[in-house]
Amino acid sequence: MIKPVWLDGDKVIFVDQLRLPVEESLVECRDYQSVATAIKTMVVRGAPAIGISAAYGLYLASKEAAELSKDHDDFRRFMDEAADHLAKSRPTAVNLFWAIKRMLAKYEEVASQDFATIVSVLQKEALDIAAEDEKMNYSIGEFGHDLILPGSGVLTHCNAGALATGGYGTALGVIRAAYEKNKDIHVFVDETRPFLQGARLTAWELKQDNIPFTLITDNMAGYFMKQGRIQAVVVGADRIAANGDVANKIGTYSVAILAKEHGIPFYVAAPVSTLDLSIASGDEIVIEERDAAEVTSWAGIPTAPEGTQAAHPAFDVTPNRYITAIVTDRGVIHPPYQTGLQRIVKEDA
Amino acid sequence: MIKPVWLDGDKVIFVDQLRLPVEESLVECRDYQSVATAIKTMVVRGAPAIGISAAYGLYLASKEAAELSKDHDDFRRFMDEAADHLAKSRPTAVNLFWAIKRMLAKYEEVASQDFATIVSVLQKEALDIAAEDEKMNYSIGEFGHDLILPGSGVLTHCNAGALATGGYGTALGVIRAAYEKNKDIHVFVDETRPFLQGARLTAWELKQDNIPFTLITDNMAGYFMKQGRIQAVVVGADRIAANGDVANKIGTYSVAILAKEHGIPFYVAAPVSTLDLSIASGDEIVIEERDAAEVTSWAGIPTAPEGTQAAHPAFDVTPNRYITAIVTDRGVIHPPYQTGLQRIVKEDA
Question: What ipTM did this prediction achieve?
Fold first, then answer.
C-alpha cells in the first residue's frame, strides 16, 4: 500500500517525491522545521498529504516542547511558533491550515495536563488524521466509481493519488475503485508541467497497481478528447470555495474548458476537509507563485536561454460552471454547489 | 539576422536546433542523406525551413549525381532516389513535398542539358526558394501586424520564427512587425512540450531581438487568458486544408479552444506554400507519431517510470471554426476560408 508519509517512533518518514520515479528513497525528519522544509520543497505534496505532514510536524513539536519547556506557558509558545512556521510552508492548501487548526484545538483540550499526556494525545490525533484521510478516500472511491462507465478513457491531471493523501487517493481513488470494479478503463495521465507530478508520481502509482495508462504531455489532452479516446476527467482539489469553484494544480482550468468543449464530464474528487466555505468564490483564493527557475530548467539543465523571464503560478481556479460533479467522502454533489456543499458540511455537526 | 540553414559552397549548414539554447553550434552536411537525417532528427524543424533544407538537399544530390552519373538516365535515377529519401524524412510538412516538387520541376526543365548547367540551375532554384520564403515572411508581417493592437499580450505556441523559416518567421514575423511598429506588446511563449521549441527556440529568438516576453508552461495558457493578460494568439501552420483546417504543432488545437472560450482572436500565419487545397479538410491530414521516448525523458533523464507507455502525436488539427483569420504573404483571409483560400491561390496563376 503506497503512503507518502508515516510515523516511525519519533521520526516522520517521507517518500522523497522529488526523486521519484528515478529513485525510491526516504527522507527522515526529527523536528517540525525539517517537516516544514519537506512541505516547502515538495518532498511531499498534495493537499491532504500536506495536512497529514503538518499534523505529524506538530506532534514532533510537542515532543520537543515537552523536553525544552519550563512550564505550560513555554509549551504554548513553542506550539504557537511551530504552528506559524508550518502554516507558512505552502500558501494554497486549505488542508494544511485545517490540520494545524485541528491539532491546536486538540492541544487546547489537554493544554493544562502533564506534558507526556499532551504529547501522547497529539500523537494519536495526528495518526487519526492520517487514518481518517485514507478512509475518506475509500469512501470517495466508493461514491465516485459509478461515474466512470465501463470501457472509459479517463484523463487525470497532476497527482491526486495515494502519494498526495493518507493513501488510495482522491481522483486516483475514484480511478482505482472503478478499475477494481472491472470497469476495463484506460487512464490518460497529463505529465503536468513544470513539476511533472503526472509523469513522475501518477504514472508510478498506476504502474505499481497495474492499471493501464498512457502518459501524455499536457498539450495533448485536447487531441485525445477530439479522437474520442477520453470519456471522463477526474482531478483532485487543493481548495473548494462555497460556490464550488475549485483551486487545483495549474492546468486544471484548461483541462476543464477542453472537457466542456468536447462534452466530456469533468469531476473533482476531494474530501470534505478540502471545502473552505469561508470563501464565497475562487476569486478569493491566493494563488501561490513558485520559483520561475522550475519552468526554465529541468533536472538542473536549462530549457530556456539564460536570463529568461518565466511565470510559475502553481495553481489555477476552475469556476463551478465547468464542473459536472464534486465527489466527496460523504457523497456526490451536483450543481448548484452552493446549497449542496453547505448541506454536506452541516452533516458534520 | 537569424537563419536556420544556408549554403556555404558545397556544404549545407544548419544551426543545430537540438542544442539551442544551451549551445549555439552548427551542423555541416555534404550530401543529401545527411540533410535528410538533419530533418528527421529535428536539427532543423518548422515547415518552411524543412522545405528550404530539402531544396538544398536536392542541390547537393545534383552535385553528387553530376560526379557519379555515366549518362542522363543515371542522373535522373539518382535525383529520383534523393527526392524519395528526402520526402520520407518528415510526413506532415507540406512544404517538404512542395519544395521537392518544385526542385524536380526545375530539374525537368533542364534535364537534357549538360550536368554542370543542371547543378547550377538547381543551386539557383534552392537559393530562390530560401530568399522567397524570407521575403514572404516580411509580407506576412506587413499584412498581419495590424491585427495586433498596441499594448497587447500575444500568445504563441511552438516556434514559427526565423529558425522555422527562411528568416524573420511567420507567427513571429507578425509579432516582430507589430513590435517594430512600436506596438508595445508582450509575448507569452508556450514552452511547447515535449520538444520545448517555445522555451528553447522562440525564447532564444525573442531574446536576440529584445522583444519582451514571459515563458510559460503549456498548461498555463488558460490561466493567463482568464487573467486578461492575453489579447491575441498567433501561431504558424504545417499544413492548411482547402476548408481552412490547420495542422500545426501538438497543443495548437487546445490553445485555439482556450482562445475561443475567452473571446480572444486566434490567428494563423503561414505562406501560401503551406496551403494544400488538394485536401478538402483536416481529417485527411496524417498526423506524425514520433518516438514516445521524447515524452518519457528529457535530456536523457527519465521523467516517468521505466517502461511507461506514452503517446507522441507531433501535430494536431485545428478546425477552421476556431480560426479568426489566416495571415498569408498575399493578405489576410477571413472566413469562409473555402472561397478565400481558393481565390488567393488562383492569384498565383
Answer: 0.91
